[in-house]
Amino acid sequence: MSICNYTHLEVVPTDIVYILKALADENRIRILNLLKNRELCVCDIEAVLGIKQSNTSRHLNKLKMAGIIVSAKKSQWVYYRLNDSTFQKFPFLSMIISDEVEKINICKDDLVLLRKLKASDRRCE
């Protein structure tokens, strides 16, 4: 299926612009790849990407402002997950995250590292 199949959707032009801009960064693509199957704490995302908290927060904020992810505070930690309503509104996002992103080697490596982190019972501090 092609992205052209979704041109009939009635959207505010800025919606799609923010989404496409948010997708135009490797770290943000990597974050979406990590979130495609589960909710994650920001500390898990930082650990897998190997970037500082400030950079992680900047990328997460960009994705959140575009409506691609949502967050929830649980105790002192913030957890992120994909925003189901945005993925329903823009089905091409699911195609990108599930079909195309898994072809990127670093994204495959990220999922392996995430599995190892989760299996190690590592705790956020």
Characterization of the model:
By secondary structure, the protein is mostly helical. It has one domain (12-118): Arc Repressor Mutant, subunit A (Orthogonal Bundle), CATH 1.10.10.10. The chain has 7 helices and 3 strands; from the N terminus they run ααβααββααα. Strands 1-3-2 form a 3-stranded antiparallel sheet. Strand 2 (69-74) and strand 3 form a beta hairpin. Helix 1 (13-23) runs antiparallel to helix 4 (53-65), helix 2 (26-35) crosses helix 7 and helix 3 (42-49) crosses helix 7 (105-119). The chain is globular, with a radius of gyration of 15 Å. Residues 1-13 have low confidence and may be disordered.
Features:
125 residues, Arc Repressor Mutant, subunit A, 58% helix, disordered N terminus
Quick description:
The protein has 125 residues and is mainly α.
Roughly what fraction of the amino acids lie in strands? 5-15%
Estimated structural class: mainly alpha
Q: What's the CATH C level?
A: Mainly Alpha
Mean pLDDT: 88
Remind me, CATH topology? Arc Repressor Mutant, subunit A
What is the total number of structural domains?
1
